[in-house]
Amino acid sequence: MDKRERERPRVVLGVSGGIAAYKACELLRRLTESGHDVRVVPTASALHFVGEATWSALSGNPATTEVWESVHEVPHVRIGQAADLVVVAPATADMLAKAAHGLADDLLTNTLLTARCPVIFAPAMHTEMWENPATQENVATLRRRGALVIEPAVGRLTGVDTGKGRFPDPVEIFELCRRVLARGERGAVEPDLAGRRVVVTAGGTREPLDPVRYLGNRSSGKQGYALAATAAARGAQVTLIAGNTELPDPAGVDVLPVGTARQLREAVLKAAADADAVVMAAAVADFRPAAYATGKIKKVEGREPEPIALVRNPDILAELSADRARAGQVVVGFAAETDDVLANGRAKLARKGCDLLVVNEVGEDKAFGSAENEAVVLASDGSETPVPYGPKDALADRVWDLVVPRLAERSA
Questions:
Q1: Which residue in 80, 135, 201, 396 could disulfide with 230, CB within 3.0 to 4.6 Å?
Q2: What is the structure's pLDDT at 348?
Q3: Which helix (H) or strand (E) segment is 156 a member of?
């Protein structure tokens, strides 16, 4: 093995025996094509869905369920010890139960007991199995021990059934793995938001003028989605309230779509009731039309259109900050400015009363719609944290870096 191979991140992909095992092939492909050294460890049941030859061919490594093969290499110990990340996808109810109770009756469960790296479980099962108190207790146990158990998706299950329990999109699971590995490279292995509930808003609201037109803005939702995804990678239970985006749901995140500012307010206040932190990254319209035309507003030849009267929308950030739903709740706002950026940001921080305010300059090719961002995070204690231009993931992680100690101080 040459130096370059040794430097490749080592990922163990555990596959348990559910119909979603075939979807793990796409996750495996993305991991290997992005330069990871992947060892697939399936359960015996998983091989009923996808054969050993497929896993070996796609990974370039042997795939076995047995602790008795290559015994001289002590695989039941060495595989877990050498891993930078273990991801079990899909994780059945049976696998979650075995992991929570420390059972070790095959190679995958032995690997989980010997792993000293981050561990991700991507559950997939029928809704009744996921909601069963035994499964929920097992999930809570694993999360308490530091494992990242992501929430399953909602959608079509086996047969005609629909509900929560669907295997998350493999692309989004891959993105979650990438984020967790990136944190490990920076020395941050522990999920520092484990046990925390957070609410993130994203996208832009739209205020209808008539059945065809609306007042809106250019927000893509990318920064809010990055905040939600990085929070999930750090162990949080995340509710993402999304206004008018076209982005895929991040793995392990509960997504609530909304349209208008008033709909967003209703959803945020409800979700914030049991949240440890609320991050208002959405671009919320300050105004809405005073009247809604039930029919399309027609163009009349020879006449200018009537002026559109506007009224103020509720100030959700100020409301959240003034009336915290929980003691110690941390509230973060965003300020998109076009001029006098820091001066306007400081004034807004004082006016809104939030704990942190992420201030960034917007305009053509700046922030909106871009994959990159830069900002200054202003704090109510007077501190200022500049975040240089870079991926929105990096800004999201820096925001959570500032939230985590504030949560710790308030819960001490």
A1: 396
A2: 93
A3: strand 153-156
